[in-house]
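[Solved] Which block belongs to which protein?

Original post:
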Amino acid sequence: MSAPINECRGCWVDWTDPLVHSTIVTGRPDPDYDVSDPDESVALAVQVASDILLRLTAYLVHPAGTAEEDYLASPRIRRLSTNWRPLRQVLEVARIGLDGLAEPLGHLPVVIGHDAYFSASRCSLNYWVSTICRCDPNDVEYVRMRYRFGSTVTASARRAVLYLSRQLWLQANPSQGECELPERVTSVNREGLSYTIFDPQTYLMERKTGLPSVDLWLAAINPAKAVRPAGIWTPDAPPPVNHTTRWTSFEELSA
């Protein structure tokens, strides 16, 4: 590997944990497994598996992190609904003017639930126009919100990512065992002739991995094979545009 992996960005599990490391390398969890010299190919397998399952679950399952999102604030806005859920803490709300500069709006009254909601009693149209949209109604201004969101990696999600990570690790280390990932081939017998057709689209089109236990979990999490979480957007609650996302490292969680 050309460069060491110091941080597994977006990983669902801590690859330096002896239980995780031993499960991927040996197939059995061992709390006493020696990770003084960890195999960085394990980190790569965990990162790839986490990235694959993040998308196959329509971004519903993910580790904790911090996000910054922009919302169209003209001509009025009453509610800020986040892309990443569940919402844990609103860190800052700022007005982005026509000059592109951010102007913090201070401590606005916010009700925090699964999404971010501004208090209805303070969100009259006149209040928003005078406080946020201090411009001509035909101009465009934005509100930027920075917030923390929580982890949705459950025990079943952890099991799925560990199993997929092990298969990806075995694919990169064939001498350590047989990989169970499908080879994407189809055998055909016709008129006495037998041949094999390479079909890479089968599992891709079905949004599956080819591993029955992982696909069973995916069917329960994302039965409609959605690409993104569903949402209802109205003129007073426009959809956000994700500006940045930073995943929380396991070192920060344990600090």
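(Second protein starts here: sequence line, then its structure tokens.)
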Amino acid sequence: MPAADPSSIVRQIKDKARSLGFDLCGIAPADPSARQDYYLNWIRTGQHGQMHYMAERARERLDVKAYFPPARSVVCVAMNYHVRGESDVAETPSARIARYARADDYHDHIKDRLYDLADWIRDTFAGTQTKVGVDTVPVMERELAVRAGIGWQGKNTCVIDPMIGSWLFLAEVITSLDLPADTPHTDHCGTCTRCIDACPTAAITRPYQLDATKCISYLTIEHQGQIEPSLKAKMGDWVFGCDICQDVCPFNSRSPDATDPHLIPRLPETLNAESVANWTLDEYHASRRRTALRRVKLPLFQRNATIAIANQK
């Protein structure tokens, strides 16, 4: 029988998480968000853009127990997806893809392991209830990860671990177990503003605050329809996501590479933008198969590639 001592339970859960391949694991209390006022103002001022799902379930996002009433603790886990950038752009004109989208779709890969962890928790600690999430459920996963000691929230709003940096896939098992929480990291961003200075569209409006409607990741993935000219010119050659604010972060300069084979890229850092702009439906399906690229429909890829071509001319 497993020990009933809460500290022992935490150790067992963390050992199990590591055995499943998670790089980091921490425990957060299932308390309401401390950033409720900021979040509601962020929605009120339209900074979520066309991500209507961010507003539709705001009450649940701001309080884990509103989403899952039995919640007492949140087991937060993270996986490193860092890979070295290629030194030269192989394609001209180029169509650049964010690191996280070049390997197998992380949703499928992490969710399988997360369900294994949740199943193990329920089987090991009788009567426990669980709920899992991989950035598709209405919880404030970055805030929870910070509470759990996974890392601190950087000025670009990403969670930063001092050893891995911000190249982290986040996920959580919400549980009815009442567990002692981990100690959060202190903020080590200091006076650094590299991420703010490097953002081409000024999407990081202030330290720790992001206007999604200006973010290149949002524009290339979430925004439907035409993009205003002033933003188009600043999108560079990005066609899916953006890594600029992470690339310039000092804590990412020494990040280890991911070792999990599912997180090793299958796609190059850049595609040929002219090819993408002229993809047939079959070519589109073949290129994005099994990756996170499948989130974007063909017309958006072609729109983004056309912008990338114009910017490089």
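Accepted answer:
You had them paired correctly. Confirming on the second one: The chain has a mean pLDDT of 94.
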